[in-house]
Specification:
Blueprint (H helix, E strand, L loop, with lengths): L3 E8 L3 E3 L14 H8 L6 H7 L8 E7 H5 L14 E5 L10 E4 L3 H10 L4 E6 L1 H6 L6 E7 L7 E2 L11 E8 L5 E7 L5
Parallel strand pairs: 1-6, 1-7, 3-4, 3-6, 4-5
Antiparallel strand pairs: 2-8, 7-10, 9-10
C-alpha cells in the first residue's frame, strides 16, 4: 500500500510559512541542499529541476497534494503547474485551476487519500499547507521535516488548527547539517491493541 508522506520545511517554532505565506527565510543554500536535491528530487518544482539538470524519476513520489494557498504561490509568476512531472491534486472548495497533470478536487481529502493509497504507485507527497495537513493527520504515514534554524514568531503552523489528540511517531533517521538544517524522518507508531 502507498504511503502519505508529509515532507515540509518548518521553522524551529513550528511554522511552515509566515503569516502571509512567506517562506523565503528557509535556507536554500548550504550542505543540506545536495542531499535533499538527490534524495527528494521529486519534490523540486519541474522547471527548477530542469534548469539545475536534476533528474526526477518519480521513484519516491508520483503524486503531490496541495491546498489552494500552497498551490497559488506560483500563480503570480505564471506557474500553473509547478510539479507537472507528478500527478498534482489541489484541494479547494470553490476555485478552479488548469494545468498539465493538475486536478482540482472538492472531495473530502481523507477519502481521496484513502483511494490513492489503494492504487499502485510510489508514495504520495503532502506538500502543504497546514490546514490540509491537519485535515489529513490521521492518514499521514511518515513525516519528513526539514527543520530550519530560524524562528518565525507567527505564521502557518505545521498542522494548522487541530484538536488536542496526541499521536505517536517513531524516529527513523535524523541528519544534522553544518548549515543548521536538521532533516528528521518519522514513521507513524503502530497502534496499541
Amino acid at each position: 500500500m502507498r504511503e502519505l508522506v508529509y515532507y515540509v520545511a518548518v521553522s524551529l517554532d513550528g511554522f511552515i510559512a509566515g503569516p502571509n505565506g512567506e517562506f523565503d527565510s528557509f535556507l536554500a543554500e548550504g550542505d543540506h541542499m545536495d542531499v535533499i536535491n538527490e534524495r527528494f528530487a521529486d519534490t523540486i518544482p519541474t522547471d527548477f529541476a530542469d534548469a539545475l539538470h536534476i533528474p526526477q524519476s518519480r521513484s519516491m513520489f508520483d503524486t503531490v497534494l496541495m491546498g489552494w494557498n500552497t498551490y497559488a504561490v506560483g500563480l503570480p509568476f505564471g506557474v500553473e503547474s509547478p510539479y507537472r512531472h507528478l500527478r498534482q491534486i489541489v484541494f479547494t472548495r470553490g476555485r478552479n485551476a488548469t494545468g498539465e497533470s493538475l486536478e482540482v478536487s472538492r472531495d473530502d481529502p481523507a477519502e481521496v487519500v484513502r483511494r490513492l493509497k489503494q492504487e499502485v504507485g510510489a508514495s504520495i507527497w503532502l506538500c502543504g499547507g497546514g490546514a490540509l495537513a491537519a485535515t489529513l493527520a490521521d492518514e499521514i504515514d511518515r513525516l519528513v521535516l526539514k527543520r530550519n534554524p530560524v524562528l518565525f514568531g507567527t505564521g502557518i503552523p505545521l498542522f494548522g488548527e487541530r484538536p488536542y489528540r496526541p499521536e505517536r511517531f517513531d524516529e527513523v533517521a535524523t541528519t544534522a547539517f553544518e548549515s543548521g538544517v536538521v532533516l528528521s524522518e518519522y514513521r507513524r507508531a503502530p497502534s496499541a491493541g
